[in-house]
Amino acid sequence: MNTRRSNSKNSLEAGPRRSRLVRRGRRGNPAERERGAALVEMALVLPFLVLLAFGLVETGMGWRNAITVTSAARQGARVSSHLGVNPQSDREGLLAVQAVMGADMDQVDFVVFYNANGSGDLPAGCESGSVGGLCNWYDKDMVAATDAEWAAGGWDAPWAPASREDNVRTADHLGVYIAFQHEYFTGVFPGTAPVIKRQTIMRIEPKVD
Fold this sequence. Notes:
Helix content is 50%, strand content 14%. It is of the alpha+beta class. The longest helix has 54 residues, at 30-83.
């Protein structure tokens, strides 16, 4: 009789234990559930993190190129304004631009030396070519030309250095305008990268009689 009661009691105690084990098995290990949730969250967030990283890289490269182009325009204007009416004014200014740009000179679409009197804006038509009395337009091949090619080209004739005013009271203002084709570094973003345009204006240094 006691044996049957004991067996019955053991059976009752084993039942709830088995039930708890079954429920626990169905729920799974909490640590494993957390790891699974973390993996799902990472899969959702990772693409956005990657795009953010690429965006930061592209922004940094764009900022770096903009600073370089600005420095090149400033240096070109400084050299050319210092030379004033010297026949080599534009030539030396372009070489100064090239020195700052270095290997990035290949991405320069064009450089313009222009008469910046008045508003200081680039005169109409000067983005596509030279305009008599207003500006000289140069592409990167002209910048890289030899001295002989430069002399034969006559590329600085439309706004010739000799025609510029360097009188202390009425000296012209000279502008240097650079258009630079930025290129995406990562290759992730679609479309064409923007053209970076920068200009610097300086007064031609007056002659000393």
